[in-house]
Each structure stands twice: as C-alpha cells, then as structure tokens.
Amino acid sequence: MYNSVEEFMGHVEAKNQGEKEFHQAVHEVVDSLWDFLKDHPDYIHAKVLERIIEPERVVMFRVPWRNDRGEVEVNRGFRVEFNSAIGPYKGGLRFHPSVNLGILKFLGFEQVFKNSLTTLPMGGGKGGSDFDPKGKTDNEVMSFCQSFMTELSRHIGPDTDVPAGDIGVGGREIGYLFGQYKRIMNEFSGILTGKGLNWGGSLIRPEATGYGCVYFTEEMLKAKGDSISGKTVAISGSGNVAQFATEKVNDLGGKVITLSDSGGTIHDPEGIDSDKLEYVMDLKNVKRGRISEYAEKYGATFLEGKRPWDVACDVGLPCATQNEINEADAKTLVKNGCKAVAEGANMPSEPSAVEVFLGNNILFGPGKAANAGGVAVSGLEMSQNSMRLSWSREEVDQKLQGIMQSIHQACVDHGSNDKTIDYVKGANIAGFIKVADAMIDQGAV
Ligand code: NDP
Ligand code: 2IT
User: What is the value of pTM for the model shown?
Assistant: First the structure.
C-alpha cells in the first residue's frame, strides 16, 4: 500500500517514463479516489488501482504505404487495449503527427472511466498513428488506412475491440478502414463505429459528442437554476466536436462567438449562426481548409496563433485537444465572468487550470463526463448492429439526452459536498466503482 498520492505517482512515473500526458491523467484520477479508497479497503486489498493503470495489452506496428509520387512512407500504428472488465475494448483512433504511446495511454485510460459512466457495457481502448492527414490526397489517406487496417484487423472484432474516430479520423477514414477489414476478413460486422448511414452507421453518431457536451452543460446550468439560452459561448477547435457543439448551442438559444484550429481563432461577435456553420462544415469537412478563411469571408477578427480564451464569454467549451487551457487562460476566463466550462475535448485543461475553475466555483465538466456522448452513441451503434436494426434520429437523440442526464446525476451522487458539486471527483469515483467491482468479481486477472 502506498502512503500518499505522491508516493503512488512516483511509482507510476518511474514505470512509465516520459509519458507525461499519461502521468497527468492518472494523477487526476488517483487524487479524486484517494480518500474514497481509504474508506473502501476491498479495492486496496485487491490492488485494483495498481491493475487499472496497466493496459491489458498494447500493440505497436509498422504502417508502410505509398504516396501519390510512388514513394514508400512509414508510420507507426498503435492500439492500446486498456480494460475489458465491463465490455469489449472501445475507443477512438487518432491520426495526428503528435501521436505517441504516452498520449494514447492517457486517452485509453480516460476512456475506461468515460465508458463506464455511459451506463453501457464497453471497456476502454484507444489507438492511432503519427500519420498526418493534412495535405494528403484522398488516395493517400486510403492507402494509409488500408495498410493500417491490414495489421489492426488481427486485433479487433465486434466482441473484442471496436475502434471509432478521434482527431484526424472521421467518416472518410472510417469508410476506408471498414472496407479493408471486410476485404481481409470476408465479414460484414460492427468492428468500427461512426460508419456511414447506409452501411451500418447510426443516426446522431456524428453529432453525438458535440450535442452531448452541450446537453451536459445544460444539466450543470439547470442544477443552478440557469440555462444556455442567451449565453455567449467560446468554442475551440472547428472539427467534428466543435461543429456539432456549435449547432446545439444555437438550437438552445445561445450564441457561439469563437472557433479555432491550429492556426488561430476566429472571433465573430455577431455569432456563428446556422448559415455560417454550414460554411464552416463545408470548409473543414469537404475543402479541408483553414479557419482563417472564415474571417476573410465574414469580416470577423482572426487572432493568429491564439486560442479563444481571451475573448469574454459566459461558457467555454474546449473542443480541440489536450492541454489547450493553461492556468493563465483559466484566470482570464474567470476574470471575464465565465460561469461554466465543459470539456468537449479530452483533458483540454491543464491541472492548474482545473484548480482555478474549482477554486472559483466555476461549473466544470471534465471530459470523461462532458464528452461521453460520442462513445455512448457508438455503444448504441453497436446495439443496432447486433440487432440488425436502426433507430430513428429522435430515438437515438432521446437516448443520448437520457445518458447525459444520468452521467450528470452520477457526478452529483459521488461529487457533491456541502456547497458545490465537484464533477471531477464525481466522474472519477462513479466511473471507477463499476469497473473496479467487475475486476474484483472476475478475480485477479
Ligand atoms: P477533428 O480532427 O475533427 O478536429 C480537431 C480540431 O482540433 C481541429 O480544429 C484541429 O485543428 C484542432 N486541433 C487538433 N490538434 C490541435 C493542436 N495540437 N493544437 C491546436 N488545435 C488542434 O477532431 P474531433 O473534433 O473529433 O476531436 C476534438 C477533441 O475531442 C479531441 O480531444 C478528441 O479526443 C475529443 N473527442 C472526440 C470525440 C469524437 O467523437 N470525435 C469523442 C470524445 C472526445 P487543425 O485542423 O488545425 O489540426
Ligand atoms: O474520445 C472518445 O470518446 C472518442 N474519440 C469516441 C470513441 C468511440 O468509440 O466512439
């Protein structure tokens, strides 16, 4: 038994050297669980914490492919199969040049708790590659995806491991990956989620992460007798999650004033209405252009190289990537009157930023709760695939709203103290209990 969080983290850091994002994700969870574990010695005796931080399996592989000039390129592929106590491994694939084992372990670890919170039977996993889809032709992306799946196909299956999208992996990539799996295995089955609607996909899956994040924000505000209606919202990113978060904020009567990409932020004080959002979707999903083009088209301000957090807002929704809000950004958000922050991205707030939010009673929804809508609808896609049936848009959206409400309630049940709701603590404890109990039931495996 370790005597302190610091002692435990010393062991984690020594054993997983250089994996700083993984250390960060583990530290946050262990911090939340420490006092709870002292009151529940069964988990300590069964060494659940020591086991839950160790992936069940990590696969790392070579991905050779040919570019349009006929040259061979080589990338590295990964699948981290983290925990299967409550269901098959489930989690996205990320294609981005920054991808390495530490980043995928952080994402896989978060996914274990997130998937547990969804109420659905899904274990946790994550994978991807350091392949950069930016500037590549469709043909090059297809070549890469086919090579990636040629190896990945040995490790996944509808009852084993079911990947999906994440940064750099959307409908186009899922299509190429699915086609190659089917060709190699001679089998049409639900081995990926986020599929096209006419070949096994679910309605609302593309929308689910962004919509779910806004539903979660609405629940947090509702608990305070407030709502999104009339609020000014700053969103970072301009990909899948950011786009559908914008759509849902508009539906609920809020105004989105920023979007961003790795080049900078656009600030449109008039609000990004549905026509402008349609332009962003075409720009990003079809033309694959830069968000700066929005500023040229609509005469909005472009803050080159900047994130959105200096722009005054009532609600902040970070929907781009990890560690995109630092302590100074958090202080600026608080100073400018921000009331709520919900993480559409995974771990976008640095630990010191989270401290600022919690210390100032900002409603703070951590990613594993606030962005769980995406994987939740992936779980619903798996159910529909198993039944060989598909549900209507309304039916899936209703289920998504119900799931986001139950995640909010789980955070309230496990994170409330006298005055406030600590959603970080609530999400970590609630997510942990279900997985930890299953691990104990299944013996020392
Ligand atoms: P996309 O690839 O569709 O979009 C990513 C967006 O974030 C782009 O605007 C991209 O800009 C920006 N971005 C990515 N990396 C960086 C970086 N290092 N610095 C600045 N900007 C960056 O991905 P998603 O929208 O799917 O994912 C966004 C976040 O949401 C990720 O953290 C992901 O893990 C999380 N998430 C996604 C889910 C899903 O269902 N898709 C589910 C739950 C969480 P640029 O194009 O310039 O790179
Ligand atoms: O981080 C995430 O939850 C995702 N990228 C979605 C995973 C999934 O399996 O839908």
Answer: 0.98
By most ligand atoms within 8 Å of CB, the mutation choice from 317, 321, 375 for ligand 1 is 321
Domain with CATH 3.40.50.10860 in the chain: 57-188
Residues having CB within 6 Å of any atom of ligand 1: 165-168, 170, 209, 237-242, 261-263, 319-321, 344-346, 371, 374
Nearest to 205 by CA among 393, 55, 398: 393
Which of 96, 205, 209, 240 is the best mutation target for the ligand 2 pocket, counting ligand atoms within 8 Å of the beta carbon and taking the most? Answer: 209
Kindly list the catalytic residues. 126
Q: How far is the CA of 165 from the centre of ligand 2 (A)?
A: 6
Instruction: Report the distance separating Cα 391 and Cα 393, nearest Å.
Output: 7
State in Å: Cα 37 to ligand 1 middle.
34
Structure tokens at 220: 């947090």
The beta-carbon contacts of 173-176 under 8 Å, at least 24 apart in sequence, are 173/93, 173/95, 173/133, 173/141, 173/145, 176/141, 176/142, 176/145, 176/146, 176/149
Q: Residue 173 CA: which ligand is closest?
A: 1
Express each pLDDT in 326-370 by its tens digit: 999 999 999 999 999 999 999 999 999 999 999 999 999 999 999
Please give the CATH topology (third level) of the domain spanning 57-188. Rossmann fold (3.40.50)
Within the chain, which residue ranges are assigned CATH 3.40.50.720? 208-365
Instruction: Tell whether domain 208-365 is in CATH 3.40.50.720.
Output: yes
pLDDT at 445 over 90: no
